[in-house]
Amino acid sequence: MSTLILSTEKSTTRTRIRRVVTSRAGGVSASPYESFNLGDHVGDDPAAVDANRRRLAREIGVEPDHLVWMEQIHSRNVTVVTEPTDEVIPVTDALVTTVPGLALATLSADCVPVLLSDEEAGVIAAVHAGRIGARIGIVPRVLAEMVRQGADVSRIGAFLGPAASGRQYEVPAAMRADVEKHLPGSATRTEKGTPGLDLRAGLRKQLLAAGVSGVAEDPRCTIEDRALFSHRRESLTGRQAAVIWMEAPAAQETV
C-alpha cells in the first residue's frame, strides 16, 4: 500500500467492510493543492484531480466508476446509490448503498467525514457533516435511510474521520450556542480560551443516543496536522477523502 493512505480499518465479519482515509501526500496536484487533492470544486486542475481519483480507485482495488463522489452542499440530503457511475452525485451530502463493490467517498478539509455500516445487513453510508449539516441533522437522516435499506441501528457502527478539533475550531459565541442547541455536546472552549465547537463530540453523542453500536474516531485535528488539508489553516487548499465499501463477493475469503 502506498503512502497516500494514512489509516485503514476493516471488519472481521462475513461481510467485509473496508474504510480508508487519505492524506495530502502522494498525488500530482501542484501548489497550493499539493499533492493528493481529491476535491473537484476548489480550483485545482481537473486533470490532476482526475488522476488523483483514479489512483485512489487503483489503490483500493475498484474501477473508477465504482468510486462514487458527491457534490456536497452542506445539506441534509441523502442519496441511495445502486450502480456504478462516472458522474458526481449532485446536491447531496450523504451516500447509502447495499451494493458490494461500490465505494462511497466523502471529501473534507475540516468538516467531519462520517462512515457508517451494518455489516450483517450489508448497508453502508458515507456522510459529509460540516457545521451546517451537523446542525440541521444530516446524520439522523442517514440513519433513517439505512434502516429503510434493511439496517438495524443497534448494529450500525460509526467512524468519525479527522476534522477540526474543539481546541482549534474557534467560532463566535452566538454560533457556538446555536450549534449546541441543535447538536448537544458540541460546545467547547479552544486552547486560546475562546468559544469553540467540537463537532465530533456532538456527533458522537448524537450517534450513541440514537442507539448505534459504537463510534470509532480518528483523533487527528486537520488544523494542526499538516499532513492533512485544512481550509481554516490555509483557505485555498485541497480535500482529503474518507471512503467506505463492501468487498464484492468474488473478493471475499471463504469462511
Automatic annotation (TrEMBL):
Keywords: Copper, Hydrolase, Metal-binding, Oxidoreductase, Transferase, Zinc
Catalytic activity: S-methyl-5'-thioadenosine + phosphate = 5-(methylsulfanyl)-alpha-D-ribose 1-phosphate + adenine; adenosine + H2O + H(+) = inosine + NH4(+); inosine + phosphate = alpha-D-ribose 1-phosphate + hypoxanthine; adenosine + phosphate = alpha-D-ribose 1-phosphate + adenine
Biological role stated in the UniProt entry: Purine nucleoside enzyme that catalyzes the phosphorolysis of adenosine and inosine nucleosides, yielding D-ribose 1-phosphate and the respective free bases, adenine and hypoxanthine. Also catalyzes the phosphorolysis of S-methyl-5'-thioadenosine into adenine and S-methyl-5-thio-alpha-D-ribose 1-phosphate. Also has adenosine deaminase activity.
Co-factor(s): Zn(2+); Cu(2+)
Keyword Translocase among record annotations: no
Protein name: Purine nucleoside phosphorylase
Taxonomic lineage of the native organism: Bacteria, Bacillati, Actinomycetota, Actinomycetes, Mycobacteriales
Molecular function per GO: copper ion binding; hydrolase activity; oxidoreductase activity; S-methyl-5-thioadenosine phosphorylase activity
InterPro entries membership: Cu_polyphenol_OxRdtase, Cu_polyphenol_OxRdtase_sf, Cytotoxic_necrot_fac-like_cat
Entry keyword annotation includes Transferase: yes
Record text on subunit structure and interactions: Homodimer.
Naturally occurring in which organism (per UniProt): Rhodococcus qingshengii
Database matches in NCBIfam families: peptidoglycan editing factor PgeF (TIGR00726)
Family: Belongs to the purine nucleoside phosphorylase YfiH/LACC1 family.
CDD domains: YfiH
Coiled-coil residues: none
